[in-house]
Design brief:
By secondary structure, the chain is of the alpha/beta class. It folds into five domains: 180 residues, P-loop containing nucleotide triphosphate hydrolases (Rossmann fold); 73 residues, Arc Repressor Mutant, subunit A (Orthogonal Bundle); 193 residues, Rossmann fold; 155 residues, PCRA, domain 4 (Orthogonal Bundle); 45 residues. Helix content is 43%, strand content 14%.
Length: 739
């Protein structure tokens, strides 16, 4: 029998989907089930078996990487020339259409695409022309309003204000923005899709041409489509083409940017004759990991329904670690990573996943201290993020008025009406006199700058002087907290309604935690705490992060992890309020999306999955005592193994997991003695001294006990002090007072 390169590599379910009749079809493809293979082999099967012309196939996906991989695989399977197939992202295909039909679309032939930064810059120019205050009409809020309405298919003339003056102004600005784009001959990303949809809707001849051409339309990651993308697809397909869509309702995690998981259900209503296929065999994860993920996601209502399975091994249980605080959590992860490497593993086998970017700071700190190479995937390291650099610039200016770079960075942040012309006046004066920008500003107040700019500049100078006096004598973290409050940086980012704004505000709050956890004794100099801290973060933001090609632990948010896989995954911060996130717990839709995000995180793991949470976590500058995530409780209990006894300080995470006397059912390991794997219930080294207890030291202040070793007067205790960091003390001399 002759080998069939198209069908032979497929399992039964994949083959059924690939060879489906030439009619609408919906493929529910679970994590790791081979959806890309099904899409590419479907294209190859249409061309190779049904003699379908490559030019009559349109394949749409969400990333250029996925589109390139799909094109390469099809060309390799069939040996056809590159460029024949229309395979690309929604935005890429829309751009291609508009370049061909620029006149019908109402564009100029040489129209240009602007990115998010250029879009925001254009909005700022509009606000200036309209003499509107940016602190009242925040450019990022206007940008969000425009893009959200475009994604929903709404033009400004079709929006109603509902007698709301704020909304009326936003609609007016949307209209002015559109007019400015038309004058400049530019389109933004959201405009590409909306304009191409309107091209088909308003130009019947163009639509008919593409309906006749693209008889086979394939769509990847269908659960991530938004309103305009679905409308675009439905309009193109009409009643004659054969849509073949692949998606997974259990992996729809982009609702915050407009994705509608409901589109999978809507597809079934719009195409009632569509055949449904399920890809449930997973080629990535062990049986235990899949059973855990299945048990979790079963708590979501309204699913189309599928159950992942594997013909591979059951594998190791999911390991659950209850940390005392976020540092203990990071130290545990670090220790397990080092054990893996000691046994011959490599760092790049491992991913540390978290819900919020701000969680990365403690891990980065521990990894740097222990020389574990790491890479923050899809993002910047904590101290390299723009909002953190802004805050540090303010702090540097409090210490050193001659820091021109810091002055320029924050003199108009948040916006206070200091324009480019005023800044250039100050720069010119500084060049002439050889002075700092701070000194030049003082000299220019009045006639050189003009009344309005002088008032704004004087306000900035007075803010810095006042802050310097206010923070004198305060603890380091209080200095940082006071600076953030006085400058309004957190409120500035909170006004950005997109998730990016909230994440930036959270990162700024986390800077307070970083300052609290910083001990001046960690510096090799005699600098004051604030100056020592600034020196520390400057050094930390330099070396330490591995290059993309180096062997390194991969750190990323759960959203970034979608589509990736790793032999070992640590899913960290499993606490209600953090994951699921506080803003999502209040609604069923929000909670179910968070659960899908957890499902995505679990199914990134190939061999080992760790879940960790902290009983006390200082995040965004606030101490939190949270319940373990409900997602832990929703994971089948028999699949979870606790790996540390939690003594007196812990709450049960699932019914039946703990005995009435506090003992742990199942295998445990007492890590703190240095002998992983040894079951133990630690005896108190002294009355009131137990893991997790709060104590006070005469010199170091208050802290939490992380570890106990030995017994009697020579016993040692490890305490994480709020102001001085973690220290080992001999009980005989420590004179600790239980609180």
């Amino acid at each position: 029998m002759t080998a069939d390169p198209i069908l032979d590599p497929l399992n039964a379910a994949q083959r059924a989907a690939v060879t489906a009749p030439l009619a609408p079809a919906l493929v529910l493809a679970g994590a790791g089930s081979g959806k890309t293979r099904v899409l590419t082999h479907r294209i190859a099967w249409l061309i190779g078996t049904h003699q379908v012309s490559p030019q009559s196939i349109l394949a749409v996906t969400f990333t250029n990487k996925a589109a390139g991989e799909m094109r390469t695989r099809v060309e390799r399977l069939l040996g056809i020339a590159p460029g024949v197939l229309w395979i690309g992202t929604f935005h890429g295909i829309a751009h291609r259409l508009l370049r061909r039909h620029w006149r019908e679309a109402g564009l100029i032939e040489s129209f240009q695409i602007i990115d998010a930064e250029d879009q925001q810059r254009l909005i700022k120019k509009l606000l200036k022309a309209e003499q509107l205050d940016e602190t009242r009409w925040v450019p990022r809020e206007i940008q969000w309003f425009i893009n959200t309405n475009k994604d929903a298919g709404h033009r400004p003339q079709g929006l109603k204000s509902g007698n709301d003056p704020t909304r009326a102004q936003m609609i007016r600005l949307y209209g002015l923005y559109e007019a400015a784009c038309a004058r400049s001959g530019v389109v933004d990303f959201a405009e590409l899709l909306l304009r191409s949809f309107e091209l088909w809707r308003d130009q019947p001849a163009v639509l008919q041409h593409y309906r006749q051409r693209f008889r086979h339309v394939l769509v990847d990651e269908f659960q991530d489509t938004n309103s305009i993308q679905y409308a675009w697809l439905k309009l193109l397909v009409g009643s004659q083409s054969c849509p073949f869509v692949v998606g997974d309702d259990d992996q729809s995690v982009y609702g915050w940017r407009g994705a509608r998981v409901e589109n999978l259900q809507q597809f079934g209503r719009d195409f009632p004759a569509a055949q449904l296929f399920r890809l449930e065999q997973n080629y990535r994860s062990t049986g235990a990991i899949l059973a855990a993920a299945n048990g979790l996601i079963a708590n979501n209502a309204g699913r189309l329904g599928k159950t992942l399975w594997t013909s591979g091994a059951q594998g190791e249980p999911i390991r659950l670690y209850a940390a005392f605080n976020e540092r203990d959590e990071a130290e545990f992860v670090c220790q397990r990573i080092r054990e893996h490497v000691t046994r011959g593993g490599v760092h790049r086998d491992i991913a540390v996943l978290y819900r919020s970017n701000a969680q990365s700071r403690v891990f980065e700190e521990i990894f740097l201290a222990t020389r574990v190479p790491y890479r923050v995937y899809g993002g910047l390291r904590f101290f390299e993020r723009a909002e953190i650099k802004d805050a540090l610039a303010y702090l540097r200016l409090l210490v050193n008025r001659s820091d021109d770079a810091s002055f320029e960075r924050v003199v108009n942040l948040p916006t206070r009406g200091i324009g480019a012309k005023s800044l250039e006046t100050v720069r010119a004066a500084a060049r002439v006199t050889g002075s700092s920008l701070w000194e030049a500003t003082q000299a220019c107040l009045g006639e050189a700058l003009g009344a309005r700019a002088s008032t704004a500049m004087r306000g900035f100078l007075e803010l810095i002087e006042r802050l310097t006096a206010e923070i004198h004598g305060l603890d380091l973290h209080e200095q940082v907290d006071r600076m953030l409050a006085a400058t309004g940086l957190i409120e500035f980012h909170q006004r950005d309604k997109a998730e990016r704004g909230e994440a930036r505000a959270e990162n700024l709050e986390e800077l307070v935690s970083a300052a609290r956890g910083f001990g001046a004794e960690r510096s090799d100099t005699d600098l004051p705490p604030l100056e020592a801290f600034l020196a520390h973060v400057t050094l930390e933001s330099g070396d330490g992060q591995a290059d993309a090609w180096e062997d390194s632990v991969q750190m990323m948010t759960l959203h970034t992890a979608k589509g990736l896989e790793f032999p070992i995954v640590f899913l960290c911060g499993m606490e209600d309020g953090l994951f699921p996130h506080q803003r999502s717990i209040g609604t069923l839709e929000g909670l179910e999306e968070e659960r899908r995000l957890c499902y995505v995180g679990m199914t990134r793991a190939m061999r080992q999955l760790y879940l960790t949470y902290a009983e006390q976590r200082r995040l965004h500058g606030i101490d939190n005592f949270s319940q373990p995530s409900r997602f832990i409780k929703e994971t089948p209990e028999e699949l979870i193994e606790e790996i540390r006894p939690r003594i007196q300080v812990s709450r049960p995470v699932a019914a039946g997991r703990f005995a009435e006397d506090g003992g742990v059912h199942g295998a445990v390991s007492y890590r703190r003695t240095g002998y992983p794997g040894r079951s133990s219930h630690a005896e108190p080294a002294a009355p009131g001294m137990r893991l997790g207890a709060r104590v006070r030291h005469g010199k170091f202040g208050e802290g939490v006990i992380l570890n106990l070793e030995g017994s009697g007067p020579q016993a040692r205790v490890q305490v994480n002090f709020e102001r001085q960091g973690t220290k080992w003390l001999v009980m005989q001399y420590a004179n600790l007072e239980p609180l």
